[in-house]
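Good morning C.,

I know you're traveling, so I'll keep this short. The sequence:
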Amino acid sequence: MIRPAGRRAAARRWPRVPGWAALGVLVALAVAGPLAALPASFILAGEAFDQIAATLLPTALANSLLLALGVGTGTLVVGGGLAVLVSFYDFPGRRWLDWALVLPMAMPAYVLVFVLLGQYGLANPLQTSLFGDGLTLPGLRGPAGAIAVLSAVLYPYVYVLGRSAFLGQSRQSMEAARSLGRTYGQAVRRVALPLARPALAAGAALAVMEALADFGAVNLLGVPALTSAIYRVWYGAFDQAAALQLATVLVGLALSMVALERLLRGRARYHQALARGDAAIPLRLRGWRAALAPALPCLLLGVVFVVPVVQLGAWALETIVDGTLGSELAGAALNTLLLAAVAALIAVLTSTVVAYGQRAQPSRLGRVAARLAAVGYAVPGTVIAVAVYVPLVWLDRRLGDAAGGLLGLDLGLLFTGTILGLVIAYVVRFHALAFFAMESRMGRISPSLDDAARALGADRARVLADVHLPLLWPGILTAALLVVVEVMKELPATALLRPLGGDTLAITVWEATKDSRFDTAALPALLIVAVSLIPVILLIRLSRRDGWSSATPER
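The tokens, ready to paste straight into the viewer:
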């Protein structure tokens, strides 16, 4: 009689996990599962690392470290400097530069490289280059050129976060510094900049992560970084174990950069109690300073965004007029839209399940699984590709053997030979974007709505369908849009996993640029930039609604 009572007591101590919570954990673990192939490669084929450690790894690691250091410094100087200029000084054109400086975020690095190569680096097959033919740009190829290009397109990460941090500072701190005899510039350097250090460091860390993940720009500029080494080992030597181990090193480097940023930040926490309309008042510049202040930002925008877009338009127009438009463009555009739509749909479904599972039954396991599933966005596309490929090959073989033995059917390569493998890689890579959008939107729904629906007898599934989904549509559209844009720009994962005939717009640009066919690459590159502008425009509208450029200049 005592033992059954003990069993009942044990059962009471272990509450039943609701189905939605368990499903959310399973989906999160499935999304993050392929990344387990990275550390497992050292256990299953540890000897492969000895060869790459003596040949490819030293040079690739040194170049990646150089890129990380250079891009981190460059984006911090450019993005932080522009944020200071627009936040604390007033000059002609400040109001439109305030939002226009975000536009380079829509320019993929490999597109900018291809335009620069077409204009300066190589003989241009077209006669419509805005700067003529035969010009060269010294230092374009190599680490210095890669650092310059990546810094030019990634500085908005630092600019946006720095600008937001400066707007969140109360002007009382600046006035206190001025009352102690400091000039306006000294107050900015000694008060405003230290207070914004966490935001600036976070923006630089994001830029460094993107630089380490870049494949197209560094490959086109001839920089043998880790991403290029992974591609070379994968396609050149067909060594999966070595590719996985190089990918593990790259992930470790990226995580080390994040840890370094946290270490440099230390335990500093900066809080500002900012009342509405209490932001620092920008100082009006006069004379030559007022003329110089907008000149440098305008030059940067012209080189990074305006001139490349105009040049792409000129090249694309000439190919249309001459009828030399590549026949593969329509197929690439269709493939891109199909892949983007399918990946966005699956990512929205997975993120909804994970977010709702956490809401239905919050738990430490659910939170850990959700954050683990979001790690994929911090992992480069080349790493995702090689990590996803290994389990999919194993699954293809098991399914093929089972179908052949039981049914006598030849399934072929169901995952690695079709777009399914590529879609899975996209979901692993971009699930985090959809999840954060859905989690943010779901957090705005009052728990009392759930309680009321449950009190009326609705189960969890009906609460999600009838209560949450109608209120989640803005978040769903945002999540889908973010995934669609990122899939359209994604190059390394697509290059490694695409099936035959599965080229996308990004692959069309990359392949044409490698062969110096800039006319063929122009229109697909322009389409990528146009679509990438959508989230940037949304960001600009959101930032302006939150009060950018709202302060009145100080005379």
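Safe travels,
E.
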